[in-house]
Amino acid sequence: MEQNLQQMVDALFGAHPYKIILSNPGKAIPDEGHGVRRYRKIVLNRLDGGWQAEQYTEKQVFHENLGEDGAEAFLLEALSSVFRQCNAWDGQWEFTIRISRGGKASFQKKRTAQAPKEKTGHDRKKRYILEEGTVIPPLTDMGIFTSEGKVVRSMYDKYRQINRFVELIDDEVDSLPKDHKITVIDFGCGKSYLTFILYYYLTELRGLDVRIIGLDLKEDVIRNCNRTAERYGYEGLHFELGDINGYECPHPVDMVLSLHACDTATDYALYHAVRWKAKLIFSVPCCQHELNRQMKGRELSILTRYGIVQERTAALMTDAIRGNLLTACGYKTQLLEFVDLSHTPKNILIRGVRTVIPQSVKQEARREVEALKEAFGFRPTLDALLSPEEGRRAGDAD
């Protein structure tokens, strides 16, 4: 019985091939903006970050990045309208789709003795900290891994995003103290997808003695998270009902997370981290409304003339001020791009590592904040919480 072409393409991608070759073209491919090019062959290579198409004419090759989710649609369209043959390899098997002149499709799978090489160089397949083939309960429950530890094809983007989050922590985790149980506070933990992943990474992969406390205002969320932690056997992971402002931890705090604490709630999380002299800070702010409401730029009125420009500028200035204030308090601070799981497509992650910062660097960071406040009439909450005297105390070397 003839199989549906869509089903064949689904089966092919379900095998996670690393290379696909389209050949035997029947007609030209229209390429909008460049007229009609006749490609004699197209090679699809899986790279870190998605798929790339190498499209060959007789004398040239044109490259197009398809992303992770665009390759399947590209292949289906190419086989439906242009090419009559497709060969793909996953390392052990070769898959072949053929389209007859009458339009009938056939599918074949066979072991391959000599597969083409995977594309190497800067595009070679990346090794992730959370490796495929490992059973990681939180990733299974999120639908990212199968029960056997395989990445679900449609979830590769989220798989990479979660690994990126872990990588940002992995870069600095060796600076955590080794002489006591490590305490991590996750402010505004929500459903705690990344909290569970962090606990797995710190305990299972790094072998650290860790307690993580997640804090949120929603009672049902806290109840469900505690049930999940118990089901996983994560004895050092606990969730509490509480507000960021005014929270006191009974243990010395080594790391503070604040992922998506809205508006000035981020400032209170950062303030607590500085006050506790936490070694590591990871914060992904959102909903930065405070400075947008205050923004009045007489000399740079062009930035306040258009609402969307003012909103985005104020959000960036908010995080720049937060970064400088952390520097002034004794933290090596970076603002990094973080691709988020469920909110805006791209966010900024503030990463702070408590260390010895030269006094001249602290003073310059503070001077830049004062200049921005003066230029736009800002009164940032974190600046008010961290008075210059308190900021200096927090930044003093232990």
Describe the protein.
With 398 residues, this protein is α+β, with helices and mostly antiparallel strands. The chain folds into two domains: 5-123, no CATH class; 137-395, Rossmann fold (3-Layer(aba) Sandwich). Helices cover 36% and strands 26% of the residues. It is built from 13 helices and 16 strands. The protein has a seven-stranded antiparallel sheet with strand order 6-5-4-1-7-8-9, covered by helices on one side. It has a seven-stranded mixed sheet with strand order 12-11-10-13-14-16-15, with helices on both faces. It has a two-stranded antiparallel ribbon with strand order 2-3. Helix 10 runs antiparallel to helix 11. Residues 29-36 and 389-395 have low confidence and may be disordered.
Main sheet overview:
7 strands, antiparallel
CATH fold topology of the largest domain: Rossmann fold
Helix and strand string, N-terminal first? HEEEEEEHEEEHHEHEHEEHEHHHEEHHH
Task: Give the class from helix and strand content and strand pairing.
Answer: alpha+beta
Tell me the layout of helices and strands.
Elements: H1 5-14, E1 19-25, E2 29-30, E3 36-37, E4 41-47, E5 50-56, E6 61-67, H2 70-81, E7 83-89, E8 93-99, E9 105-111, H3 137-141, H4 156-170, E10 182-187, H5 193-205, E11 210-216, H6 219-232, E12 237-241, E13 255-262, H7 265-275, E14 280-286, H8 290-294, H9 302-305, H10 307-328, E15 331-338, E16 347-354, H11 359-376, H12 381-385, H13 388-395
Parallel strand pairs: 10-11, 10-13, 11-12, 13-14
Antiparallel strand pairs: 1-4, 1-7, 2-3, 4-5, 5-6, 7-8, 8-9, 14-16, 15-16
